């Protein structure tokens, strides 16, 4: 049985860091599995195969957006329930979340596998990339039920303040996926689809290991009869989860749709530009992971403080999170600039494409600091159930800043203008979220949702 939460018995920065470091590690490992797949595919199958994966990335993010929204809502409710030490309520929220997640994964996976071809054509996928992109997309869609359950389980545990188990399970999954990808490509000649199928098998293995670990520890979320009795959508709880999570899901859908527009703009410059986009996206994800992790940690610490009846701790949580963003995200960004050529060379062998990717990476990497600050403000507001204004702000930064700037600058200065759109969007996000937090949200009373 995990320990009951004892909020901030020591220095807040220490408790925050102890939770944060495994969370960052898990997020990095999660991306590392995809990175290893991309390295294997790019080095063994060539630039066109890497471009095929890059083309599908925004599609995948689009279809998992509602899942992320659900898990964001459930982690807030679980955090408040755990902070209030309501273990039965924690289990009920988990049962509702897992049941809804599985249904969503099966539905999206089935429909996506059937409609992958028209979808990729709609995106303007280059003709020379299309066969491999279609193969990868169908395999990735078929794998989504496992992926969805994997993400949901980790999110629920984090809501209870446990970031170590998700890290260990992610490590198992990453190692298994890396071994399987190499084997499937080299020995079974499965092509680019191996990257998606190996990840699904590895995540299933990780879920099995997690189930055994939770049962052995007598954890409230162990797959026992107690959890089985609530493993169905409870209408009242599901409404609460969706009320918090759906705005986040909508925001992510909009962001993913913007990603589809962006990849459409990039594809017009040919497969080299698409491959460079894939490499830069992989590296930039690492720059954003500390920022995203800090935002998640701030939201969970905030939710537990509210559930425990200590909302006065929220300002300290925000200050700590912003300092962590400067130190951790800033440090990683500095390393990316120092080793930018080596990093993009992991994915690309063509010298001309390497130069292009490095140039684009130099444009965008520093903006991860802006992205981090904006998501910290929205994360702490979400911990109290305030989701609509931060969501509107995030959507506005995409629709009114990122897309127009990317399109206009791409017309004027070419491919690099697309990346300046990201920078402008993250800057607008930070200014608007920060203004709403300081001028509006802080002045309102904070109450528990459960």
Features:
450 residues, mainly alpha, 16 helices, 82% helix, disordered N terminus
Global mean pLDDT: 88
Poorly predicted regions: 1-5
Q: From N to C, what is the helix and strand string?
A: HHHHHHHHHHHHHHHH
Please give the largest β-sheet: none
Tell how many strands the DSSP assignment holds.
Answer: 0
The gross shape turns out to be globular
In terms of structural class, how would the helical and strand content be classed? mainly alpha
* Number of continuous helical runs: 16
Strand content: under 5%
Helix content: over 70%
Taking the alpha carbons of the first and last residues, their distance comes to: 23 Å
Gyration radius, rounded: 21 Å
Describe this structure in words.
The protein is mostly helical. Helices cover 82% and strands 0% of the residues. The protein has 16 helices and no strands. Helix 2 (47-83) runs parallel beside helix 5 (144-159) and helix 3 packs antiparallel against helix 4. The chain is globular and about 55 Å long. The two termini are 23 Å apart. The model is unreliable at 1-5 (pLDDT under 50).
């Amino acid at each position: 049985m995990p320990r009951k939460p004892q909020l901030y018995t020591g220095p807040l920065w220490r408790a925050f860091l102890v939770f944060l470091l495994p969370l960052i590690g898990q997020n990095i490992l999660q991306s590392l599995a995809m990175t290893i797949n991309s390295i294997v595919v790019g080095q063994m199958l060539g630039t066109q195969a890497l471009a095929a994966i890059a083309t599908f990335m925004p599609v995948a993010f689009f279809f998992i957006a509602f899942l992320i929204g659900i898990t964001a809502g459930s982690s807030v409710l679980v955090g408040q329930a755990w902070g209030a030490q309501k273990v039965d309520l924690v289990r009920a929220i988990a049962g509702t979340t897992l049941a809804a997640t599985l249904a969503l994964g099966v539905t999206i996976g089935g429909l996506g596998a059937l409609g992958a071809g028209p979808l990729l054509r709609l995106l303007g996928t280059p003709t020379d990339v299309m066969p491999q992109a279609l193969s990868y997309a169908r395999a990735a869609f078929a794998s989504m039920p496992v992926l969805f359950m994997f993400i949901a389980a980790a999110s629920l545990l984090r809501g209870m303040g446990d970031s170590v188990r998700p890290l260990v399970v992610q490590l198992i999954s990453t190692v298994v996926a890396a071994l399987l990808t190499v084997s499937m490509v080299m020995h079974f000649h499965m092509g680019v689809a191996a990257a998606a199928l190996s990840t699904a098998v590895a995540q299933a293995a990780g879920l099995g290991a997690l189930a055994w670990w939770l049962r052995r520890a007598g954890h409230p979320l162990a797959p026992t009869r107690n959890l089985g009795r609530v493993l169905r959508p409870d209408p009242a709880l599901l409404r609460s989860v969706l009320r918090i999570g759906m705005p986040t899901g909508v925001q992510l859908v909009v962001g993913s749709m913007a990603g589809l527009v962006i990849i459409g703009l990039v594809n017009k410059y040919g497969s080299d530009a698409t491959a460079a986009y894939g490499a830069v996206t992989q590296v930039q994800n690492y720059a954003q992971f500390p920022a995203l992790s800090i935002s998640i940690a701030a939201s969970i610490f905030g939710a537990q403080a509210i559930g425990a009846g200590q909302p006065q701790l929220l300002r300290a949580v925000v200050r700590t999170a912003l300092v962590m963003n400067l130190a951790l995200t800033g440090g990683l960004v500095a390393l990316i600039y120092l080793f930018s050529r080596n990093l993009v060379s992991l994915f690309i062998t063509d010298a001309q494409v390497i130069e292009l990717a490095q140039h684009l990476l130099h444009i965008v990497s520093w903006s991860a600091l802006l992205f981090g600050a904006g998501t910290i403000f929205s994360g702490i507001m979400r911990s109290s159930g305030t989701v609509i204004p931060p969501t509107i702000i995030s959507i506005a930064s995409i629709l009114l800043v990122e897309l127009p700037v990317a399109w206009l600058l791409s017309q004027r200065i070419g491919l690099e203008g697309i990346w300046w759109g990201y920078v402008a969007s993250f800057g607008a996000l930070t200014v608007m979220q920060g203004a709403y937090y300081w001028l509006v949200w802080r002045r309102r009373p904070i109450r528990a949702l459960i």
